Amino acid sequence: MPTLCGLILAAGFSSRMGRDKALLPWPPSNATGATLLSAAIAAFQPFTQHVIVVAGKNADSLAPIVAASGASMAINPAPECGQFSSMQIGLRAVLAHNCDAAMITLVDCPPLSASSLKLLCEAFDQALARGQWAVAPEHNGRRGHPLLAARPLIDAFLAAPITGNARDVKRAHAQRFACITVPDSYLTADVNTPEQYAAVSACNRESR
Q: Distance (Å, rounded) from C-alpha 94 to C-alpha 96?
């Protein structure tokens, strides 16, 4: 079976939110100080050998959370090159940690429940046995994160130009993907603005 590493992309500028999305409280109303970043790390850890966070200009503010959570950090020195550049940097770090598969998410995607992540991991094992490369969750017909990627897909991402994007690589290998339905209703929600964060927060409260 593949050795799975968690990969959280957190190098964005959060310009529309007005503050770093990685540091937004999650769950929204909690007194623990948990953030989207720390919650994502904690969600991944039971299912992965290690968790890597890709940071950019925000590395100094994220470093204490990463260290306290027992994860490690990779730095994108040019986050303005886009999210795909962060993914490539992160995937190289995954391979450097002797892992051959990755559980990839964006820091502004609220983490799925443990039961949903367990379903994804089980589906990933089954997909690999069928010769597929990846598994993604879906809800109401729409895909979300995390993406579980095996070594062939990691290699395809790394072989693409830095100016490329993950969508084109996934489309080129669409027959190698499997999807599994999960009940998490906020799976496909956007968290780019304060209004969207408030809407996802309300959805999270209703689902508890």
A: 5
Q: Give residue 152's pLDDT.
A: 97
Residue 155 buriedness (CB in 10 A; 0-12 / 13-18 / 19+):
middle
CA–CA separation, 27 vs 59, rounded Å?
Answer: 22
Q: How many CB atoms lie within 10 A of CB 163?
A: 9
Chunked into runs of 10 residues, the chain (208 residues) has average pLDDT values of: 93 86 85 89 97 97 96 96 95 97 95 95 96 95 94 97 92 95 84 86 63
Amino acid occupying residue 46: P
pTM value?
A: 0.93
CB of 147 within 8 A of CB of 136?
A: yes
Length of the chain: 208
Q: How far apart are CA 206 and CA 121, in angstroms?
A: 26
Q: Could you state, in order of their start, the residue ranges of all structural domains in the chain?
A: 4-207
The count of C-alpha atoms lying within 13 angstroms of the C-alpha of 203, restricted to the half-sphere facing its C-beta, is 16
- The strand pair at 142-143 and 134-139 is best described as antiparallel
Among candidate residues 103, 105, 110, 87, the one with its CA nearest the CA of residue 189: 110
Which residue is associated with the tokens 């593949």? Answer: 2
CATH superfamily of 4-207: Spore Coat Polysaccharide Biosynthesis Protein SpsA; Chain A (3.90.550.10)
